[in-house]
Amino acid sequence: MERLNFGLLSPVIEAAARENAKVEGDYFDEEGFLCCGKCHTRKQCEVKLPEGLGRGRTERFPVMCECRRKAVEAEEAAELKRKEMEVVQRLRKESLMSPRFEEATFQNFRVDQANAYNLKLCRRYAEHFDKMVEKNQGLIFYGDVGTGKTFAAACIANHLLSRGVPVVMTSFIKLLSSMQTFGNDNERLIANLNRAKLLIIDDLGAERDTDFAQEHVYNIIDSRYRAKLPLIITTNMTIQEIREPNSTRYARIYDRLSKMLPMEFAGGSWRKDDAARSLTEMKKFLEGNDG
């Protein structure tokens, strides 16, 4: 085969020739093309050269056989998956989520008659998150302590994190503490929060009722509103308290929440049920009735 000078392409062609060189078991077919001895597909192709390069004649170039192509695709897919998992792990570390909620998923959501509808809405929200971002649709989870609000929010967070979507899940108390640490550079903290496509803030109303707290809570919520980025908030307050706050300082905060979809979490307390179950198991153990 006459060797042609293809300038910058020569190293590529030479590398392809090395990668697809003849190995034990390979053979030439009736037309003289090198074939793979395993999958019996050609390791060469014929290309008609442009007039300026080869005066219209054809040249044979090395190509991947079918089994080599599949192997390379599998290697690339595995590498892509590895990189995706690295991104997911990094996002989890940066998410600020409490470790006890890192394993919260829709699969282990404790479903009962009181929360089955909420589970459906939360799952749909997570599965169609691109649409939620487009509409800047946020959620407010409200209800008594221990009814699964934070767990449901964590299920959404973990669903998105597993798909490489940047999520930050934290609490207003933690954020206010961070703001005191940042000093006068709170804008940088808010800018960091807005790098997340979804911000989940737990326990609105648990922060101290001070001018400092109210101002910074408003700034956090308002920044998401202005950036047109979705926000999920959990609170133990009632919907009436959210819509008609007694404090004028809260009023402008809740005005920013008016377009967020409220979801009530009712039913018994998961925490009380878990505590009662643990006490019963311990009592049985101490009585020697643990089986």
Keywords:
disordered N terminus; 5-stranded parallel beta sheet; alpha/beta; about 290 residues; 9 strands; two-stranded antiparallel sheet; single chain; Rossmann fold; elongated; 2 domains
How would you characterize the overall build of this protein?
This protein has 291 residues and is an alpha/beta fold. It has two domains: 63 residues, no CATH class; 174 residues, Rossmann fold (3-Layer(aba) Sandwich), CATH 3.40.50.300. Helices cover 49% and strands 14% of the residues. It contains twelve helices and nine strands. α4 runs parallel beside α6 and α9 runs parallel beside α11.
Question: How would you concisely characterize the structure shown here?
Answer:
The protein is of the alpha/beta class and 291 residues long. It has helices at 10-19, 51-54, 66-94, 116-127, 129-135, 149-161, 172-182, 186-193, 211-227, 239-243, 248-255, 270-287; strands at 27-28, 34-35, 44-48, 58-62, 139-143, 167-171, 198-204, 231-235, 261-265. A hairpin with a 5-residue loop joins strand 1 and strand 2.
